[in-house]
Amino acid sequence: MKYIIIGAVAGGASTAARLRRLDEKAEIILVEKGEYISYANCGLPYYIGDVIKDRDKLFVQTANSFNERFNIDVRPMTEAISIDSNLKSVQLFNSSTGANYSETYDKLVLAPGAIPIVPPLKGINLPGIFTVRNVKDTDLIKAAVQQLTMKHATVIGAGFIGLEMMENLHHLGLDVTLIERADQVLPPVDFPIAAILQNDLVEKGIDLKLNSSVVGFSKSANNRLIVEIESSPSLETDLVILSIGVKPNAKLAVDANLKIGDFGGILVNEFMQTTNPFIYAVGDAIEFKHPITKKSTTSFLAGPANKQGRICANNIVFGNTNSYLGSINTAIVKVFNHTVATAGLSVKQLVANNIPHLVSTVFGGSHAGYYPGSEQLAIQLAFSPKSGALLGAQVAGNKGVDKRIDILSLLIQQNGTVTDLCEFEHAYAPPFSSAKDPINMAGFAAENMLNDMVEVYYWDNITDFSKDEFLVDVRTSLEFKKGRICSAINIPLDSIRERLNEFPKNQRISIYCQAGLRGYLAQRILSQNGFQVRNLSGGYRLWKECTDALNATQQLEKT
Amino acid sequence: MKYIIIGAVAGGASTAARLRRLDEKAEIILVEKGEYISYANCGLPYYIGDVIKDRDKLFVQTANSFNERFNIDVRPMTEAISIDSNLKSVQLFNSSTGANYSETYDKLVLAPGAIPIVPPLKGINLPGIFTVRNVKDTDLIKAAVQQLTMKHATVIGAGFIGLEMMENLHHLGLDVTLIERADQVLPPVDFPIAAILQNDLVEKGIDLKLNSSVVGFSKSANNRLIVEIESSPSLETDLVILSIGVKPNAKLAVDANLKIGDFGGILVNEFMQTTNPFIYAVGDAIEFKHPITKKSTTSFLAGPANKQGRICANNIVFGNTNSYLGSINTAIVKVFNHTVATAGLSVKQLVANNIPHLVSTVFGGSHAGYYPGSEQLAIQLAFSPKSGALLGAQVAGNKGVDKRIDILSLLIQQNGTVTDLCEFEHAYAPPFSSAKDPINMAGFAAENMLNDMVEVYYWDNITDFSKDEFLVDVRTSLEFKKGRICSAINIPLDSIRERLNEFPKNQRISIYCQAGLRGYLAQRILSQNGFQVRNLSGGYRLWKECTDALNATQQLEKT
Fold it and tell me: Per residue in B51-89, pLDDT tens?
């Protein structure tokens, strides 16, 4: 058997290595357009930021080491130009030697990855404007930031890579402006979770420009870059990082008449097989069926690419026996002392897909509050109002965010419910968690909603308040004095039973506490006493994060 | 309705609070033998060790605050003497006032907890010998360690609490001797995982005495304690902590003719109901059906107790509708810079229960190796040889152990398989994990065993080696020179294809590498070339940990 794999980073390299493990005798050719194979894509921003000091650490394998270990014919600097699917051959071009030649295959694997989106703006090709996708980009940026004249950098796009680049450039001592077209950082997550991160960025002095579209670039008189922003003053900068997203690199597949999906990716079935049975595809370039929406989707993540590679090789060697369940796009980003993570569908995706859902947000300690160093984290769950099936989860905080999102990601993959979270048996000792982990608390809160034990409202419902609403802060008077929501009156939880006569019988009562738990207790007392009452999900704390983030954005826009 | 709950720590307090949330009008009496309710049991060793500085932090609730918040009649210093299940009444004794009185109930909940095992040894009641179970114990120990004459402490029992006490006493500057009857520390986990921790303890200078039984205590001439050890010299010490385990406190239940289980616990059904339908029980005192063995079992953990309390209250108020799935005894302990955790059944439990299983151990980085601060951790999986169902998992390392055990615990609870681990989609960014998380790697290795892609052997098989065995170290020659196993010869992985003629055709070949991965690659090459070959699970690294631990124990016993 002769296998050709096009693309030698995460998905391609994984496929090639697994093919060799399964078939010691096959001829395996691994073709890579660039100079490097199997490098640590996700480490590039940290190498630029000098967090990773040694450039060699970025290279998991070299062409030589990969060949030595796996007896794979690795061909760097080699581009696949076209596929002749009738002849089962690939036209290859070696950019070092200029040689043009073809190779036949029994099975072909496409792993060409994704390419950064570069909008056709005025001046987009000016020196000093970079994308961050591969080692070449990285070396150029690294050289640029080491120039003594470098004072200010602009990152366009506040997604995962944009945020990592922003942090790393800030870490190098540069002033950084972060420009995002949306009304929040990290558009893949929902606003309240993003708000927690956003408030921290503003506090750290990052110049954040939301709702801002870059319309072009030019050079200033003193040879700096000028970033032109729609309806806003232009800004002068020394370096521009363009991180507004990537798109599947499907040109080869399009030309070979393979079926392409809604997002321009190479469509594969559950066996990672394209519409040509002799051609498989993996990684950022593909489209597959989303496990929850059942619609075609993409995933630009290294984890899924690696797993797809292993499954693809299994199916090539054993026949199509190993089904890929699809990625739920579990992702995480560290930004200064904050970490934000997501798994499954965001609330906005659920809305866009017309999938019925309930949403609940709780706060909890990263570990037992009585053990030093505990920090608060927020967990937002979205779940089916019928079955309680967990549809999506987002976590923001610092310590322990990665642990909680991984647990929630696994549960989504296992088709679990919020009730499973109530029963989830975590490893508890004071340095690691609490007897009731925030994951359990999130489950309890969600299950109570599912069982109609509670009714909740959300931070953004408060703008709708009419005079018919009776808003009660059930925190202590001290907490109340430090800050309240709008026209709320204060009736602390522990005095509610004695002050029942102060609550109106024929009016809806909206209560809130700091994070939601005391509000829930108050609600149980009041509703069992015949009052119509609802509790603010995430409490004053989440409302404050959201309104602070909104206000900061509006203020920034005014200035 | 009138509810009485006996015992006001984790399980009892949780039940009482949930009962109130579900039934605002019920009369709820919470009886506690001791002075304190709902305190942070698991924090006690850390308060003794001055890690938790403020004693007040140990108290989640006081009798007053609990009463204020939940309108529950909390009665500390009140012991339940007997139950009259015909009259549905409990005889109570107030140890402050000396009052003896009875209370009737509609439903009774028993949450009396567990009591430390105190063997009837000579001198067991001498001053300076303590158990660590409650606040009273803790205050006594705290007072003792603050004495200036305190130089040396002896901890008897190297289980979870024993190890935490050892660390905390060491943290206070005391010399500590740790005595354990078994041949390893942390007997609930399997030897190889315990060995990793054990080697670290020996390195830290802890005086560790394994295979050692304490037979009695006496006072020395200078008024210190003498610990007498079977077949060993006695030792002088200033303080003895007895942490050899606990047993269910079931006296009240026994006297009330409730059915008791094999381990002396109060037998409950899946609704937390005892054999008397009006009496429920939760927490350390109960026995329930183990989800994997289906046999009766106990759990002395705060997490399960809290969850049982919530379920118990649901069943009392709504009728028996909420089934408890049982605890898989997920647990974790931090000891100096090491963390060890377990979920599900250990290999020795699987053996004892005649449950067929395969075992696989891998090492992996807590996060991407190219990002600073990554540390190795070991993951041991035990799984069904037929279905691949995950039966047990143990993790040892430092960073990220809690995350991995929680993921594995959830998967065991969800009846997941090792194949699910291959597909598990974790949140990956370099500070948190690798593109293939150690959890995935553990899944890959296990799935390969399940699919007969590999044959493994274990560190303790090597003592059986006959001359018929061809032992090959496939690491680099540099690694080989630094240390090898027995009579191994060195054929580095990357040269195997050229040196196939050095391998014997009619003899089994046992190979090993550092952690198992390269050995697996070597095995794939060799087996596809017609050789009979097996790979060492966990590699040289695990073998070294195990043999080091064994040697240290034997050496200590000789001296």
Answer: 999 999 999 889 999 999 999 999 999 999 999 999 999
Q: Are residues A389 and A413 in the same domain?
A: yes
Domain boundary among A255, A287, A318: A318
Please give the ipTM for the structure prediction.
0.96
Q: Is residue A55 a contact partner of residue A72, using CB atoms and an 8 Å limit?
A: no
The nearest CA of chain B is from the CA of A230 a distance in Å of 33
Give the model's pLDDT for residue A558.
62
- Calculate mean pLDDT across residues B187-213: 95
A121 is a domain residue: no
Run of H or E residues at A3: strand A2-6
Q: What is the pLDDT of residue B313?
A: 98
Query: What is the CATH number for B483?
Result: 3.40.250.10
In this predicted structure, what is the pLDDT of residue B109?
A: 98
Q: Which residues of A touch B494 (CB under 8 A)?
A: 68-69
Which of B408, B435, B450 terminates a domain? The answer is B450
User: CB contact, 8 Å: B419 with chain A?
Assistant: no
Other Cβ atoms less than 10 A from the Cβ of B22: the count is 17
Name the one residue in this structure whose structure tokens are 């099975």.
Answer: A107
A196 lies in which domain range?
129-243
Q: Which letter does DSSP use for residue A398 in this model?
A: B
Contact B341 A528 (CB under 8 A): no
Q: Do B406 and A426 touch (CB under 8 A)?
A: yes
Same domain membership, residue B259 and residue B111: yes
B219 shares its domain with B258:
no
Total number of domains in chain A: 4
Pair B231, B290 in one domain = no
Is residue B331 domain-resident?
Answer: no
Q: Which residues contact B558 (CB under 8 A, 6 or more apart)?
A: none
- pLDDT at residue A283 above 80? yes
Do A199 and A346 lie in a common domain? no
Per-residue pLDDT, averaged over A368-388, amounts to 97
Listed by number, the residues of chain B in 59-78 with a beta carbon closer than 8 Å to a beta carbon of chain A are: 68-69, 71
CATH number at residue B193: 3.50.50.60
Asked whether the beta carbons of residue B10 and residue A435 sit closer than 8 angstroms, the reply is yes
CA B143 to chain centre: 28
Residue B178 lies in a domain: yes
Indicate the residue of A25, A343, A529 with minimum beta-carbon distance to B427. A343
User: How far does B75 lie from chain A, in Å, by closest CA?
Assistant: 19
Q: Do B423 and A325 touch (CB under 8 A)?
A: yes
Residues B176, B111: one domain?
A: no
Three-state SS string over A162-231 comes to HHHHHHHHHHCCCEEEEECCCCCCCCCCCHHHHHHHHHHHHHCCCEEECCCCEEEEEECCCCCEEEEECC
A410/B413 CB distance under 8 A: no
Q: What pLDDT digit, counting tens, does each position of B376-405 carry?
A: 999 999 999 999 999 999 999 999 999 999
Residue B86 counted as domain residue: yes
CB contact under 8 A, B331 and A21: no
**CB of A109 within 8 A of CB of A5?**
yes
- pLDDT over threshold 60, residue A195: yes
- Which of B 492-511 lie inside 8 A of A, CB atoms? 493-494, 497
Considering Cα of A437, then A440, then A446, then A451, what sign does the dihedral take?
Answer: negative
Q: Which of residues 512-541 of B touch A (CB under 8 A)?
A: 520-521, 524-525, 528-529
CA distance B303 to chain A (A): 5
Same domain, A237 and A136: yes
**Nearest CA-CA distance, residue B539 and chain A, Å:** 18
Confidence of residue B146 (pLDDT cuts 50, 70, 90): very high
Nearest to B389 by CA among B381, B397, B398: B381
Same domain, residue pair A499 and A432? no
